[in-house]
From TrEMBL:
GO terms for biological process: early endosome to late endosome transport; endocytic recycling; protein transport to vacuole involved in ubiquitin-dependent protein catabolic process via the multivesicular body sorting pathway. SMART domains: BRO1. It comes from Spizaetus tyrannus. PANTHER family: PCD6 INTERACTING PROTEIN-RELATED (PTHR23030), TYROSINE-PROTEIN PHOSPHATASE NON-RECEPTOR TYPE 23 (PTHR23030:SF30). This is PTN23 phosphatase. GO terms for cellular component: endosome. It comes from the Eukaryota. Keywords: Coiled coil, Cytoplasm, Endosome. It is found in: Cytoplasm; Endosome. Residues 27-359 form the BRO1 domain. Pfam families: ALIX_LYPXL_bnd, BRO1. Residues 414-444, 524-551 form a coiled coil. The keyword Cytoplasm applies.
């Protein structure tokens, strides 16, 4: 896998700057940076100096020195203006992340962690109301995309370095986890409406990558099983890798050639591994192949992180050019309060993330998708692939007739050849019998019954050619029989596809659910909706908390507060977060009861799920069989024609040989009569 072609990466456009009453030279260098790492360095320096500036001069929203600042919003192209220096900082930080994503998508695939760090700092330290391209949902999406791509780069290096199979599997599994988070964000209706057309392109690529890297993870789990000589486990992991890769291939329609090359390369690797493993286990090891869900799931290993942004690091931003403007006491006190707010946010987020991890693992183990938990809609219509085949046959009404006629013609020629060869054989046997009688009349002792007499001189060549034709005929007869079996197998399906659509729909299996079964399904879907409601509420509360923290600026109060009263002021100010913390605690506490109810509902759903799974399997098998029959038609017609050509040629040769045999037998009989007369 170390030579697998690289998958493409997603990169983000940079925002364009509008009006800002600032020095023209500064503006030009900061908003029109070169698309390289030097440009990243320029943006970091400018961002740091803006941080120093806003801590001393009242340029924030509704402050005395605030000026209009305009930037273009990425998705709509509209100009968005705010009188707030933090807006300039936020846009510069966004461009820093976007530029790193652009560099990471090129050959310099080392920049995604920096991009994730920039977007994380932007999400955690700035308001999300400036513009929709810097909303909480979009920034979360960007962060997970960048972390996923960073982990993907690490996976490439791990495979090049031939790291241990289990480690590579865990790294690949973590790629899947990051992309799943990104996919959840892309599936959010609000995010989709913001992104527009690009949402579909990103979602298709991310979904394909989820299955692709899941396949890579199971490929390496299979390699680990191979190293541990667990040959049954090896088969099921390689089978799972093959299944997931096939899903990735289905989702890769329309993706660039680099993706197709990577998929073809990986299919060669996984397909070869699976075939070899299955053959070895079937004929050598004979180990039981366990079910995949009985094996321990592959836990991702997050070995990348969002690299932190520090706007006050002099090694990055250079010296503070505004150091002499104002005293730093108020700013230092504000920084201490910001740290208290950050500590509060970290504590709350630790609890949320712990509960979210439990919830995600639980839902992954359940494998319950609220949208497809019953999957009943699929049975109400003929799938597009079958509709396509039915439509194709509707304009070729003679398909079955042609196939039947081809079978009949082939059978006729086959029968003629067999009859000719039988007659030749009968003539040779009759000639041998007459020769034995002659030998007995002449007093000679013929060979024992069952031992052939040497053929008459004229029949020796006939006998030799007949044996040759018989051998060719017997070999071809097996192929002919198999061809007829295949034709008989597919003719019924082709007749079905050529008939009314109602018959096709009736031929597809469909579930027969009782009222109790339907009630079980409805109950399960209701609880799954509760789970989603709990998730949405948790996300909303988290966003509210972040927004409160972002807007919480007590600098004015700090200026008039004595240093000895600072701790008390902090405690009073932090009480404003108590109510939302209570709501979050209630939400987190409710999770245990919701999951217990879901567990009970899932137990009752097990029998229905099994029945639905069996029907779905039969449905898929039927669809695949009908499609295979359609696709086999041209091949059957071709082989039938080849068979007709072969037997027509053999018939001509057999007919000539029959005439030759008759003449030779007549000559031999005449010769025997002359001997008897003498």
């Amino acid at each position: 896998m170390e030579a697998v072609p690289r998958m493409p990466m997603i990169w983000l456009d940079l925002k364009e700057a509008g009006e800002f009453a600032f020095n023209a030279a500064v503006k030009k260098s900061a908003v029109n940076v070169p698309r390289d790492f030097e440009g990243c360095s320029t943006l970091r320096k400018y961002f740091g100096q803006l941080h120093y500036l806003q801590s001393r001069i009242p340029m924030g929203a509704e402050q005395e020195a605030a000026v209009p600042i305009a930037w273009t919003e990425i998705f709509s192209g509209k100009t968005v203006t705010h009188e707030d220096i933090k807006y300039e900082q936020a846009c510069i930080l966004y461009n820093l992340g976007a530029l790193h994503s652009m560099l990471g998508a090129m050959d310099k695939r080392v920049s995604e962690e920096c991009a994730a760090g920039a977007f994380t700092y932007l999400r955690d330290h700035f308001p999300h109301s400036y513009s929709v391209d810097m909303s909480h949902q979009i920034l979360n999406l960007n962060i997970n995309l960048m972390l996923g791509q960073a982990q993907e780069c690490l996976l490439e290096k791990s495979m090049l370095d031939n790291r241990k199979s289990f480690l590579v599997a865990r790294i690949s599994a973590q790629v899947v986890d990051y992309y799943k988070e990104a996919c959840r964000a892309l599936e959010n209706s609000e995010t989709a409406s913001l992104l527009g057309k690009i949402q579909k392109d990103w979602k298709k690529l991310v979904q394909m990558k989820i299955y692709y890297f899941a396949a890579v993870a199971h490929l390496h789990m299979g390699k680990q099983a191979e190293e541990q000589q667990k040959f049954g486990e090896r088969v099921i992991y390689f089978q799972s890798a093959l299944d997931k890769l096939n899903e990735a291939i289905k989702l890769a329609k329309g993706q660039p050639e680099t993706v197709q090359e990577a998929l073809r390369f990986t299919m060669d690797v996984i397909g070869g591994k699976y075939n070899s493993a299955k053959k070895d286990n079937d004929f050598i090891y004979h180990e039981a192949v366990p079910a995949l869900d009985t094996l321990q799931s592959v836990k991702g290993a997050p070995l990348v992180k969002a690299l932190p942004v520090n706007p006050t690091d002099p090694a990055v931003t250079g010296p503070d050019i505004f150091a002499k403007l104002v005293p730093m006491a108020a700013h230092e006190a504000s920084s201490l309060y910001s740290e208290e707010k950050a500590k509060l946010l970290r504590d709350v987020m630790a609890k949320i993330e712990a509960k979210n991890e439990v919830l995600d693992q639980f839902m992954d183990s359940m494998q319950l998708d609220p949208e497809t938990v019953d999957n009943l809609d699929m049975y109400s219509h003929i799938p597009p692939i079958l509709m396509e085949k039915c439509a194709a046959l509707s304009v070729r009404p003679d398909t079955v007739k042609n196939l039947v006629q081809s079978m009949q013609v082939l059978s006729g020629v086959f029968t003629d050849v067999e009859a000719s060869l039988k007659e030749i054989r009968d003539l040779l046997e009759e000639d041998e019998a007459q020769e034995r009688k002659l030998q007995e009349l002449l007093g000679k002792v013929p060979p024992p019954q069952g031992s052939p007499l040497p053929p008459s001189p004229g029949l020796a060549e006939v006998s030799k050619e007949c044996s040759k034709y018989m051998e060719v005929h017997e070999k071809a007869s097996f192929t002919n029989t198999e061809l007829h079996k295949a034709m008989n197998l597919h003719i019924g399906n082709l007749r079905l596809l050529s008939g009314p659509l109602e018959q096709v729909r009736a031929a597809l299996p469909s579930p027969a659910l009782t009222e109790d079964d339907k009630q079980v399904l409805q109950n399960l879907k209701r609880i799954l909706a509760k789970v989603q409601e709990m998730r949405d509420q948790r996300t909303s509360l988290e966003q509210q908390l972040r927004e409160m923290i972002q807007k919480d600026d007590i600098t004015t109060s700090l200026v008039t507060t004595d240093r000895s009263e600072m701790k008390k002021l902090f405690e009073e100010q932090l009480k404003k977060y108590d109510q939302i913390k209570v709501y979050l605690e209630q939400n987190l506490a409710a999770q245990e009861n919701v999951l217990k109810a879901l567990t009970d509902a899932n137990v009752k759903y097990a029998a229905v799920r099994k029945a639905l799974g069996e029907v779905e399997h039969k449905w898929n098998t039927t669809v695949q069989t009908l499609v295979a029959s359609y696709e086999a038609y041209e091949d059957l017609m071709k082989k039938s024609q080849e068979g007709k050509d072969f037997y027509t040629d053999l018939e001509g040769k057999a007919a000539k040989l029959l005439e030759k045999a008759r003449a030779a037998c007549q000559a031999a009989e005449a010769n025997r009569q002359q001997i008897l007369e003498k």
